[in-house]
Amino acid sequence: MVIPARLTWLLQPLDTHGFAKYKRDLRISFHETVAGDGEANLTHRMVRLVVQTIRAVLNGNRWAAAFVSNGLDGSQAKVSKYIKDMLEYDVLPQYARARPNVVAPRLCWPRNRLVNHAIVCKPLLEADPVPGMLALLAPPLE
Q: Long-range CB contacts (< 8 A, 24+ apart) of 114-119?
């Protein structure tokens, strides 16, 4: 999936659903556990809190709903009101479920990067549940 430049904060599930919850839980744990105890072993205790928060928040939640509400389930039927508001759409425009032509990716690609058409425009695989999802597993662009 290609996320348009400067929109990752709005469309990537970890940005929209994970980090805020992670920071909130870490802040609460810190204040409950460390803040009142002075400076003794603060670094060790903070590392332990970070690991506990990662396990509780990032590993302890089901994230499928985050992908759906960000429109990454292939249908965009349940895109969140927040995303629609940020994009200034009441109803999202329809899009073709096909690979873009070679000009289209340039519209959302960072200006200082070359479009790797071999990855962006590769054929859809039958087992690919979301068009382009396997492209996320491809090697990074050079």
A: 114/141, 116/141, 116/142
